[in-house]
Amino acid sequence: MQELPVQQQGDTVSSLVYEANDRMRDPVYDCVRAISFLQNQVSQLQMQLAIGQGENLCIQMQHRDGNENEKNAREEEERERREKREGNI
């Protein structure tokens, strides 16, 4: 404990107390249940993050496609105007 920075000592003591209490309640599995629960939460959050990233990518691609369609439409209009001018000259 003395080797840890002062800012971390409180959290370390809390963790040790939690682990000791858990061992008293269930000496065989001590913190295994809590660790398993937290690992499941991490997995679920990673899945939610992946879904959100996929949705974000879809939105970005739709936006990009929309911009390309607008650009193509503007280019087509400009080409038509140019052809009209050249035909009138």
From TrEMBL:
One family name in Pfam for this protein: LOB
Domain LOB: 1-56
Residues covered by region (Disordered): 62-89
Domain of life assignment: Eukaryota
InterPro entries: LOB
PANTHER family: LOB DOMAIN-CONTAINING PROTEIN 12, LOB DOMAIN-CONTAINING PROTEIN 4-RELATED
Protein family (similarity comment): Belongs to the LOB domain-containing protein family.
The name this protein goes by in its record: LOB domain-containing protein
Origin species: Oryza nivara (Indian wild rice)
Source taxonomy: Eukaryota, Viridiplantae, Streptophyta, Embryophyta, Tracheophyta
